[in-house]
Each structure stands twice: as structure tokens, then as C-alpha cells.
Design a protein that fits this description.
This protein has nine helices and four strands. It has helices at about 1-25, 35-65, 70-80, 110-130, 140-160, 175-190, 190-195, 215-225, 240-255, and strands at about 95-100, 100-105, 210, 270. The strands form two sheets. The chain has a two-stranded antiparallel sheet with strand order 1-2.
């Protein structure tokens, strides 16, 4: 059982051991942020390698009798832990006793002290790198940089999206815009107008009869403001102006498609769809 667990953990650690390097080199040179980051990866590599060595040596000890590797492991473990053998515990036994519990004056394990010293060195390098020399962005600096980038992206998106109005809306015919309009229609409009615009509670959108007009401006206004007396909701809170332009264009693209089971015509017959 112990042998199988050790093998499983060994394979897991091997994958973790090389994953930082795989991710690092997959990002390319532009994403590599300097010597400090390399040092952190190497440090993690060292820790994983050390832990992997412990597990592998322990596995060999489990699978073999008193072999050379087993003897080496015992000595190595003793040096790393700096502990007294059970038969020598009397040398480090403290004089006090509580409820039959005695205390040993063991030294701190060398591996623990080494790791502690490494964290001290790491903290000094970290402080110099981020807060004294400022050769790397601190957490606050990264946050502010990302915040500025997000605000810039938002302003650019808002400029394009909200510049559309009923007066300057265009009848879009490109595949991307019509696909976006169809997605909005499918998610929000089929309950009243049918999957293909054939009409259900709402009017048929695929024939040439129109209640409120067939221009992109007129359809835009109907979707934006709704038709309260007919039960048509205003969608301006759910759709931004660009989305209203897209779904309006998709609705007008349904005209003349002749879907199955169409609802009876409503409104006025208008032969051609126009863009203004």
C-alpha cells in the first residue's frame, strides 16, 4: 500500500516539478518578467526536487532490505532532522514532567532552519526588487496598471457602442452582425415572435406587413421603447444601442423568408425593406 502511494505521489510531483517551466516558456519572451521571477521558479524547482528525493529514497527503502541506498537514506534523514536516536533520548530529556508527559530538548531540524533562512533572504530580495529599486510592479502597481487598461478599453467600447442611435442606425448585412442579432433574438424574442419570426403572441416578422414601419429607424425605436398598449416591452435596459441595431437588422433580414405556420398578416403591406 505504502509503495503504491509513494509511486502515485512521485508521478504527481514530477508533473508539478516541470509544469512551471512548461507554462513559463509557453508564454514567450514578452511574458517573462525578469531575473526575480526566474529565481522564484528555480526555488520552487529545488523544493519539489528535494521532496521528490525524500519520497523516492523512502520508496527504495520500502522495496529493499538493508541496502546501500537504505543506509544512505537513514544517514541523510538523521542529518536533515538532527534528532537523537531513541536509545540516546535520555541525554536531551528535560527535568520537568506534566501528567506523565516528558519533554525532549530537540534541536530544530536543519531543513527547517535552512528554509527559514531562505525565506529571510527571499524577503530582502523581494523588498529591494519591488519597493526599493522598483524594478518590478508591486501588487498595487499591477492593480493600477490593469485598472487603467480596463478603463481605456471600456471608454473605447462605450464610444463605439453608445454612439448608435435611432437616427444614425444602419441596416447591417454582414454575417457577424446578423449572427449577433440572431443570438439576441433567439434568447429574448422567440417566445412572442416564434423561432423563425412566424409570429405567436406577437406579429409575424417574416411577411411584408408592418404595423410600425419597416425602416431600420422604425424597428430600432420599437425595440428600444416598446409598444406598451400591445404588450411589447422596452428593451433598452437589456440591450445597448449597438445590440438594438444588430437585432433590428436581423428582424428585417427575416422579411420574405416564408417560415412554416405563419401568423396572419397584421398592419400595412410594404413591399421593400429600406435602410432609412
Amino acid at each position: 500500500m505504502t509503495l503504491n502511494v509513494s509511486r502515485y505521489v512521485s508521478r504527481l510531483l514530477l508533473s508539478l516539478l516541470f509544469s512551471p517551466f512548461t507554462a513559463l516558456f509557453a508564454q514567450g519572451e514578452e511574458e517573462m518578467t525578469g531575473v526575480f521571477e526566474y529565481g522564484a521558479v528555480i526555488f520552487l524547482f529545488f523544493l519539489f526536487a528535494l521532496l521528490l528525493l525524500f519520497i523516492l529514497l523512502h520508496e527504495m527503502e520500502e522495496g529493499q532490505d538493508k541496502s546501500l541506498m537504505s543506509v544512505f537514506w537513514v544517514k541523510f534523514s538523521s542529518q536533515m532532522n538532527d534528532s537523537k536516536p531513541i536509545e540516546q533520548e535520555n541525554e536531551i530529556l528535560l527535568s520537568h514532567e506534566y501528567d506523565g508527559i516528558k519533554e525532549l530538548d530537540n534541536n530544530l531540524p536543519p531543513w527547517w532552519k535552512s528554509l527559514f533562512y531562505v525565506t529571510i533572504v527571499f524577503s530582502v530580495i523581494y523588498m529591494l526588487h519591488y519597493h526599493v529599486l522598483e524594478s518590478g510592479l508591486s501588487s498595487e502597481g499591477e492593480y493600477l496598471t490593469e485598472l487603467k487598461a480596463a478603463e481605456l478599453e471600456k471608454s473605447q467600447t462605450s464610444t463605439v457602442t453608445f454612439a448608435v442611435t435611432a437616427d444614425n442606425a444602419k441596416l447591417l448585412t454582414d454575417a457577424g452582425s446578423l449572427a449577433s442579432g440572431k443570438e439576441l433574438y433567439t434568447k429574448n424574442c422567440v417566445a412572442c415572435h416564434g423561432q423563425n419570426g412566424e409570429g405567436l403572441v406577437g406579429p409575424n416578422l417574416a411577411d411584408s406587413y408592418f404595423i410600425h414601419g419597416n425602416t431600420i429607424k422604425e424597428v430600432f425605436l420599437v425595440i428600444q421603447n416598446g409598444v406598451t398598449e400591445k404588450g411589447m416591452l422596452s428593451w433598452k435596459a437589456q440591450f445597448n444601442p449597438k445590440q438594438i441595431e444588430e437585432v433590428s437588422s436581423y428582424v428585417l433580414s427575416l422579411v420574405g423568408t416564408n417560415p412554416a405556420n405563419p401568423k396572419a398578416p397584421q398592419g400595412n403591406l410594404i413591399e421593400a425593406v429600406t435602410s432609412n
